[in-house]
# Entry
Amino acid sequence: MRLGLIGNPNVGKSLIFHQLTGIGVEVSNYPGTTVDLKKGNLCFKHEKLELVDLPGIYSLEGNSPEEVMVRTFIQEKEAEVLIAVLDATHLERNLYLLLQLTEFGKPLVVVLNMMDEAAKQGIEIDAGKLSAILGVEVIPAAAITGMNVADIIPAALFRARSPSVLVPYDHHIEAAIRSIQQVHPATRLQALQALQGIGTDPEVSALVDALAPEIEDMHRMSVAQIIAGNRHHRAETIAREVSYDKGDVKKNTLDSLLTSRRSGPIILVAVLLSILIAVFLIGSVLEEFLVSIFDMLFISPFLALPLNPLVRQLGLSFLLALQAGLGIAFPFIFTFYLFISILEDSGYLTRAAFLADRAMHRLGMHGQGLIPLILGFGCNVPAIMGIRLLRTRRERVIASFLVSMVPCSARTVIIAGIVAAFMGLPAALSIYGITLGLVILTGLVLSRITPGEQYGMILEMAPLRLPSLKNILTKAWFRIREFLVIAMPLLIVASLILGFLQFAGFFTFFQQYISPWSEAILGLPGYAATALLFGILRKEMALETLVILAGTADLPAVLTMGQIYIFAVVSVLFIPCISTIGVLAKVVGARITLLVSFYTLILGILIGALINLIIV
Amino acid sequence: MKTSAREDLLEALCILSRDSPDPPTIAALSRHLSKPEDEIRDHLRALQNQGDLHILPGDRIEISAVGSLIGNQVMKKHRVLECFLSDILGMDRGTASEEACILEHDLSDEALERLDQYIARPRKRWRGGNTSRPHPQTLLDFPEGSELKVVSMKCPGGCQRLLDMGILPGERIRLVHTLDNKAMVIHVKGYDVAISPEIASCIYVEHAE
# Structure
């Protein structure tokens, strides 16, 4: 048996899912983060149940990918029972979605979540009365404290009913529904959907094309507006009947400070900069510590073993890959995700998106586009996945270019590992400066030349909350787990291949060909260019390979400062890593992926050559 | 009988015959106009003599071609007037409808046509003359902290998300914050929504009392 959790964004659905299934799932505070379906199993009285966490949506009749997905999910009867989660503090808006859901006629139970929060705000809700109006069971609950969460599954299994509440529509709409039903055997729901352009039956579409303009002419409003108005009106009536609001919500002064025209942008820049610098510093210290421990515990003992050369080479490659992966994952990525999770759970991320709207417009996107850009500093892969939330193809294309150029943790390792270590912090920051400058320039140009229309931002501000430590840790852990599961195996395999190639003497062969070019254009020795090439597999591997091929970790002994700097700049700008390319192809298609790879390749070489010209 | 009574009757007949395929009954007509059946029967007989309609057996009424022409014309006048009064002049929709019921009988065909054109493209009509009538105002025209009421919305590519969030004609909203480029946070139905300037420019509002 399968149960589906459905509700608006930010109603605590994921938390309920997490508590019911026991699997730690991200509890997101950013509207619509849960784009993918999350499934979990649970056992109730020896029966195995599957629980599906549907993405948070505002409507079942919209055309955003999540909305279409949930609509299809419900229509295809993929779940026997639906559990609708409502936010008691915003009952009216939540009832709007519930009223749409009732039209599907599926068996339901309603969970009235955040009752504790509502009580704090002086809102009282009569759950019994609400249940009587809707015709389904209503469970008042508070997922944060676990109140009544245990009642949800028994109620869904034994007491779920098809709701009896009906939305009375404007008489012209009702007449149109009847007309559609006369010519075509359609349910009330199908007729309503057809009126809003959902559905593919040509006969019905032709009829709607004839009916809709007449209605729109009479009301001077679109059919969608009339229908939405009727539903909101019904939701408002129900909310007024069952809830009692004792007083006004007091104005949150912190919120006005964070989003005001004067202090807002300053706070935003300060927050982002301090996060980046903190991650950079904390990461470098931790990484050094981790790497030296790893060296002491594994690498030195391994090298001391008497082994045949091939085994030794492959074993060393494996250990180095593990070392490099862990050295990035925990010090840099995990630290970064901790900070981002705090921003997200506290509700600040949506405010950041709002404040960035103006700047992002210059780059051809809008406020929401800031989120993938920030995520990109951690790892480009999840950031590119985040691009799917942007609404127009134009924005997704621009974002895919810009996100691929954002210096991720792996590139940070290179910057920290060679530039900061050998040339000092200012030189390291200058590489960030160059990269971000190029990101902005690219955005300015792309916003002029990318075809397609720009659509603005409509973004609900998540309420400001004090994030809980447990949620932040779980969330950061789940993000890093993705990295460990997807990227680490790739890293190890790539490293083994690399070790084998080195053993087989491929590098010396490759270097002969690349050396003249590399020396002429970038002023780098052939082995450095080889290392750059392997950066495509994983960025930080460029550094690892460089160390292996140079034969020493003391790079200033074999390279000049200028060469180190050029190497770092090129490897940071140069083609995104193979995982990013893979995700890009999935999100924006092969053509754009090729363009992005080609563009970054040319850009990396061009900037490298330019610096070479200036320094030499 | 008076012209206005005749026009009202024919208009009502047109509305009723559009809603259902069968010819309307006298009872339905009396309900629609909220007048006693006897009075309506008298009027109907007079109109039958003029050739506007036929009373069929079973108290059903069939409207003639001439009658339907007049009825539809009055219906259109009503609609255009109601729309003008409510959407452009900002009157309450109910009052606008009552007012339109009175005005529709004296509106000339030319005035109707021009009014209709004006409603379709209000801006273009006003460009020539330098009048004191203000343009319809959007969210962009108000400062932070304004208490507003949505009058209408015209979004390119639909405004489904706005509708789903409860931003629709008649809804009261508060403008919480604006940035320099007029990106803004608005408070609606108990929560805050951030919108870009291009979205704000499609939402027409007026001061809420």
